[in-house]
């Protein structure tokens, strides 16, 4: 199956870029023109075209700043996810060229050229869509930070804070194989999409020792560029920081050596924690194939596969893909549709309208949900900020899933050193 | 050019005995080192560090050259070209036999695209600060990039550090007619007293990839070594 994203100018309908993932054909120019045409026609009638649902494909339109029209065409995914995906794509465009150039492009050819740098970022966002393809390198979610619960996060946190102080920057984080281990408090104050895009931008063009990337912050600073500086400390572990004009790259490296030199063993231990992604002190029951633990308030998640369970023959990434499908389709629809979340498709608003119960409490979505299929079962549990989704073997009795999920969630969150 | 550096040393018994330090055991690929790490070779081996700035027109292959020299085969993962955004810095460790001594070169490549340099004023000064060598890159496919070399080299040479000059030609193919001919290259080498280092970053390799870029890396180290010798001899004269 295939997913496409198209970008056109609102005024002239000039194609700016097209990206796709999956095995389908590239979209034809005439199809692109019709999709744009129908949106334009309705706009002239004062109607905003949002989406259309075909039996196996959804199309979502979204216009930004009266200047750019983005269209997503994908199968197997929800309109809710596609809407957030388009937000993220537009933010990626701001990240690279800034809002001014998008709103008032001096010429479209130049904008096209400058936006080519976005392609790898947009491709990574496409990877976050769930279109039922089994081969994908990494299971990722569209607007949440992929993270890792490394055993000595509390020590890494204090190293990070020391380093950030040297840099005189508030926004920084440490990545292990591209998964966030620790971050400064201010980093979490950035918009979830900003956080996601900064990490993608720093990791999408292969390994290097250090990087100095000019970036605009879609929310916080769409007009003035910051420098995103990343330094690889040990293989697969890098530290990111948002800086102003100083310190320059060579100086950040010098400061990085100074701040992290004595922590090299802890960094290596954190690296070893991947791809398990949670401390070895917690063990998983053999019925558990993998889990997705999300903090839906902060917007971060940990994804892990139970390596002890070798009996299951379904290949690794595919298995974790099921958890993502479950999260997008069941969890977001039933557990996270309360008023606190800003999920904005009308479909959901209609079906699970937040209604006051007779005690005056606001309905905040269901607490649990599950799926049973021939090969496995999925169970999700919501507890405060956390949503814990577990993938079980099909032999586990449906009523014991709740107990196992509760027990496992407790032991994952009990370890205070993990600092998650 | 001095011939202090033994070009085929890597294939010798001594060279091969050090080679495994540069490979990751699990993947059998070249090992990549973070800033806190270095290859676990005997500490008696001296390490020398150099900063090299990759200069050249957009799309000539600067990023591909660095990633090929660092051990990644077949250019960027999918072969699609993406302009480099900002500064990308890559460290490559390379052991060299100079006269009778093994020296570990720590080559720090600074890579930025002309468009980034134009758009953001901090990039070029950061790349040129304390630079030891300018690596001017052209493409054997594109005569214009070759003809631009003198201007590129002149504009870059005007830094106070008097960096060494390295020239790399990408998309080189033996046995085929290229836009830039061997005669032109020879003429250029004689006139500018530099060696033109030929490379094809997309070339398929059968033997361990490291043998297919040892020639290029040795020439880079040789240029750096010669500059240091020249610098030292000048200092002696001044005294
Ligand atoms: N066949 C072949 N292709 C090459 C070679 N070097 C570069 N290319 C191709 O040329 C394109 C551009 O290479 P890059 O290394 O990204 O160019 P660059 O000089 O870094 O470009 P900017 O970042 O824009 O300055 C890529 O698609 C490469 O695949 C080579 O030696 N042989
Ligand atoms: Mg480049």
Automatic annotation (TrEMBL), chain A:
One protein family per Pfam: Fuz_longin_1
Coiled-coil positions: none
Keywords: Cytoplasm, Cytoskeleton
Domain FUZ/MON1/HPS1 first Longin: from-to ranges: 4-125
Xref: PANTHER family: INTRACELLULAR TRAFFIC PROTEIN-RELATED, PROTEIN FUZZY HOMOLOG
Family named by the database record: Belongs to the fuzzy family.
Name listed for the protein in its UniProt record: Protein fuzzy homolog isoform X1
Automatic annotation (TrEMBL), chain B:
Pfam families xrefs: Ras
Subcellular location: Cytoplasm, Cytoskeleton, Cilium basal body
Alphabetized UniProt keyword annotations: Cell projection, Cilium, Cilium biogenesis/degradation, Cytoplasm, Cytoskeleton, Exocytosis, GTP-binding, Nucleotide-binding, Protein transport, Transport
Main subcellular location of this protein, as a coarse class: cytoplasm
Top-level taxonomic group: Eukaryota
Statement: the UniProt record of this protein carries the keyword Cytoplasm: yes
Gene3D superfamilies noted in UniProt: P-loop containing nucleotide triphosphate hydrolases
BP terms from Gene Ontology: cell projection organization; exocytosis; protein transport
Any one GO MF annotation of this record: GTP binding
Residue stretches in coiled coil: none
Recorded family membership: Belongs to the small GTPase superfamily. Rab family.
Protein name listed in UniProt: Ciliogenesis and planar polarity effector 2
Organism, as annotated: Neodiprion lecontei (Redheaded pine sawfly)
Organism phylogeny: Eukaryota, Metazoa, Ecdysozoa, Arthropoda, Hexapoda
């Amino acid at each position: 199956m295939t997913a496409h994203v198209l970008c056109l100018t609102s005024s002239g309908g000039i194609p700016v870029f097209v990206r796709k993932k999956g095995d389908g054909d590239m979209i034809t120019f005439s199809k692109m023109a019709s999709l744009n045409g129908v949106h334009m026609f309705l706009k002239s009638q004062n109607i905003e075209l949002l989406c259309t649902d075909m039996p196996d494909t959804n199309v979502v339109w979204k216009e930004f700043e009266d200047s750019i029209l983005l269209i997503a065409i994908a199968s197997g995914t929800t309109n809710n996810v596609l809407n957030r995906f388009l937000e993220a794509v537009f933010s990626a465009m701001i990240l690279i060229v800034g809002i001014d150039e998008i709103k008032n492009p001096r010429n479209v050819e130049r904008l096209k050229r400058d936006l080519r740098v976005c392609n790898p970022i947009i491709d990574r966002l496409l990877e976050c869509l769930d279109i039922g393809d089994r081969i994908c390198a990494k299971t990722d979610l569209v607007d949440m930070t992929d993270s890792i619960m490394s055993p000595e996060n509390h020590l890494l946190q204090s190293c990070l804070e020391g380093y950030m102080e040297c840099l005189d920057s508030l926004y920084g984080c440490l990545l292990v194989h591209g998964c966030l281990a620790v971050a400064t408090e201010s980093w979490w104050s950035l918009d979830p999409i900003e956080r996601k895009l900064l990490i993608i931008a720093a990791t999408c063009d292969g390994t290097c020792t250090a990087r100095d990337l000019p970036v605009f912050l879609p929310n916080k600073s769409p007009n003035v560029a910051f420098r995103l500086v990343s330094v690889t400390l040990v293989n697969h572990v890098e530290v990111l920081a948002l800086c102003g004009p100083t310190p320059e790259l060579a100086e950040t490296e010098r400061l990085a050596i100074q701040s992290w030199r004595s922590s090299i063993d802890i960094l290596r231990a954190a690296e070893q924690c991947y791809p398990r992604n949670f401390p070895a002190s917690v063990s998983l029951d053999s019925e558990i194939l993998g889990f997705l633990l999300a903090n839906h308030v902060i917007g971060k998640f940990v994804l892990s596969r139970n390596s002890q369970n070798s009996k299951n023959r379904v290949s690794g990434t595919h298995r974790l893909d099921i958890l993502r499908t479950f999260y997008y389709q069941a969890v977001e629809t039933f557990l996270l549709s309360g008023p606190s979340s800003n999920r904005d498709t009308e479909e959901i608003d209609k079906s699970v309208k937040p209604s006051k119960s007779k005690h005056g409490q606001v309905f905040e979505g269901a607490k649990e949900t599950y799926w049973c299929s021939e090969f496995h079962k999925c169970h999700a549990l919501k507890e405060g900020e956390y949503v814990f989704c577990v993938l079980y073997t099909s032999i586990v009795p449906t009523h014991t899933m709740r107990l196992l999920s509760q027990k496992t969630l407790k032991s994952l969150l009990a370890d205070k050193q993990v600092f998650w | 050019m001095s011939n202090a550096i033994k070009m085929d040393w890597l294939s010798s018994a001594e060279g091969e005995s050090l080679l495994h330090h540069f490979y990751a055991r699990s993947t059998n690929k070249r090992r990549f080192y973070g800033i806190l790490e270095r290859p676990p070779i005997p500490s008696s081996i001296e390490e020398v560090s150099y900063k090299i700035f990759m200069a050249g027109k957009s799309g000539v292959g600067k990023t591909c050259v660095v990633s090929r020299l660092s051990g990644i085969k077949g250019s960027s993962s999918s072969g699609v070209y993406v302009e480099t955004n900002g500064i990308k810095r890559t460290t490559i460790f390379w052991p060299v036999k100079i006269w009778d001594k093994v020296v570990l070169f720590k080559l720090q490549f600074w890579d930025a695209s002309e468009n980034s340099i134009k758009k953001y004023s901090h990039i070029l000064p950061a790349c040129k600060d304390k630079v030891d060598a300018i690596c001017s890159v052209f493409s054997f496919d594109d005569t214009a990039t070759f003809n631009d070399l003198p201007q590129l080299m002149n504009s870059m040479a005007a830094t106070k550090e008097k960096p060494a000059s390295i020239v790399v030609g990408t998309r080189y193919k033996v046995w085929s007619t290229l836009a830039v001919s061997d005669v032109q290259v020879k003429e250029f080498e004689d006139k500018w007293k530099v060696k033109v280092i030929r490379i094809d970053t997309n070339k398929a390799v059968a033997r361990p990839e490291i043998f297919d870029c040892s020639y290029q890396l040795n020439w880079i180290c040789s240029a750096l070594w010669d500059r240091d010798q020249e610098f030292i001899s000048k200092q002696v004269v001044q005294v």
